[in-house]
Amino acid sequence: MTATQNGSENDKVFIFDTTLRDGEQSPGASMTLEEKLQIAEILDEMGVDIIEAGFPIASNGDFEAVAEIAKNSKRSVIAGLARAIHADIDRCGEAVKHAQRGRIHTFVSTSPIHLKYQMNKSEEQVLDIITDTVARARNLIDDIEWSAMDATRTPIEYLCRAVEAAISAGATTINLPDTVGYATPDEYKQMFMDIRNRVPNADKAIFSVHCHDDLGLAVANSLAGVAGGARQIECTINGLGERAGNAALEEIVMAIRTRGDVLPYSCGVEPKFMTRASKLVAGASGFAVQYNKAIVGKNAFAHESGIHQDGMLKNAETYEIMRPEDVGVRATSLIMGKHSGRHAFKDKLKELGYELGDNALQEAFRRFKDLADRKKHVYDEDIEALVEDEISIASD
Ligand code: KIV
Ligand code: ZN
User: Fold this and answer.
1) Is 107 in the pocket of ligand 1 (CB under 6 A)?
2) Neighbour-count burial for 298-323, b at 16+ CB within 10 Å, e otherwise
3) Angle at CA 303, nearest 5°, toward 301 and 308?
4) C-alpha angle with apex 300: 294 to 303, nearest 5 degrees?
5) Closest ligand 1 atom, CA of 212?
6) Ligand nearest to the CA of 241
7) Labelling 383: which of 68, 175, 275, 337 has CA 20 to 30 A away?
8) Is the pLDDT of residue 9 over 80?
9) For the chain, what is the largest distance between any 2 Cα atoms, rounded to a whole number of angstroms?
10) Does the beta carbon of 114 lie inside 6 Å of ligand 1?
11) Which residue lies with its CA nearest to atom 1 of ligand 1?
12) How does pLDDT run across 278-322, given as a tens digit for each residue?
């Protein structure tokens, strides 16, 4: 661990990317081996601490992807997912053993509804399963993450017992997922505080957040969990993931970097790779990024309204809290449309190589507004045609 940017070693938050596992579980988002290797390469390069590369028991393709990513990774820990079943754990161990640093991530449900309908097991039986499967994983490798699936709908007393059992059996990271995206930030933070206060061996593990976005709270919940003492955040590029998705990595990282005053944590991810990573994941998964998506959406650094464009031309901090180049976007764009003002129009003409006198500018601006009322997108070529026309009228 290193002390970085915002604070001391204790403030370091580990970024665990699960685009290739939870992200790929989005219906229709499956990716080829080649695409997965490219995504893993950029995640490794950008400084993601842990890459969850897949679910090795799920298929031979998944096994191969995890094993290949494990062989190729340079810096990141490579994790594979395993249910609380010996065959899953052994297969996962086989896949991650090639990594310089490998991790087995095993999980079991803990909530009453999952115990009753999914597992048909009692609380005591599940505690035995935790002890047995975590110990088996720990026999294969030292770095073991254990997750309590549906933790946020699990009574706290039982969750404490399950966490204690997992740590006693050798788990080094404890993940408490909001599997169905049900929690609110205050509740999620409180859960981490309670568990860390009540479980006797809690200080032997790093706690992790894993949030789904069913109520649109995944990023807020993740940051709240960190305020409650968690130091690992599980997230995905573009927020890809089951149902409404997981917490978006780019939002988490930029929230921490931009608001260090109230989020005093450090993370080692270099944001300038984010735009490239986002495009890569959108292309591989076939899930287009919405225009107004924070950080990586096409409009995240675009301004159309006259008031905003005027402000931006005077000082970018009037309407931008992050610099586009920091996240790999070449520059802010001032989109010419019906909301644009005279100042931005004049600036655009200058960029295109035109300087008009007051009267010609006035007329060109009037015609531009008429055009923008009729056309959704006004391109540079439209403006050039309009100005050329104006110049030829003036010279007749
Ligand atoms: O959402 C979830 O509970 C999961 C676990 C497998 C960690 O993805
Ligand atoms: Zn999940």
Assistant:
1) yes
2) eebbbbbbbebbbbbbeebeebbebe
3) 120
4) 145
5) 1
6) 2
7) 275
8) no
9) 92
10) no
11) 179
12) 999 999 999 999 999 999 999 999 999 999 999 999 999 999 999
Residue nearest to atom 7 of ligand 1 (CA): 147
> In Å, how far are 109, 123, 161, 393 from 116, measured between CA atoms?
10, 10, 18, 80
Q: What pLDDT, on a 0 to 100 scale, did the predictor assign at position 5? A: 40
Tell me the residues surrounding ligand 2 (ion) with CB < 5 Å: 22
* Ligand 1 contacts CB of residue 145 (under 6 A): no
Instruction: Look at residue 239 and give its three-state secondary structure.
Output: helix
Given this model, what pLDDT does residue 395 score? 74
3-state secondary structure of 161: helix
Residue 7 pLDDT greater than 50, yes or no: no
Amino acid at 203: D
Residue 177 Cβ inside 6 Å of ligand 1? The answer reads yes
pTM of the model: 0.94
Q: Find where tokens 């990317």 sit.
A: 17
CA of 250 to the centre of ligand 2 (A): 17
